[in-house]
Design brief:
The chain is mainly α. The chain is built from 3 helices and no strands.
Length: 81
């Protein structure tokens, strides 16, 4: 099982990749539902950090996949593969 520090490092790394390579995606980081806690004093633990990391990874992967598909479609001019 990963430690809190390890997950924080992974969160930092993916966040930096997004900021450096996909700045247009950065605006969505603050809007992610998991970043807006329902509780008044949310608990920060390994489980919650892992959920946040997973949501960042999903956002990143979906965006990159869509970005690549759009690029392929533009290159083929057919609109589909």
């Amino acid at each position: 099982m990963e430690t809190e520090e390890e997950i924080n490092a992974k969160i930092l790394k993916i966040t930096m990749v997004i900021h450096d390579n996909y700045p247009e995606l950065s605006k969505y980081l603050n809007e992610m539902p998991i970043t807006v806690p329902i509780d008044k004093n949310p608990e920060i633990n390994v489980k919650n950090l892992h959920k946040y990391y997973d949501s960042l990874l999903t956002l990143f992967r979906n965006y990159v996949a869509e970005h690549q598909l759009n690029y392929i479609n533009q290159r083929t001019k057919s609109g589909h593969l």
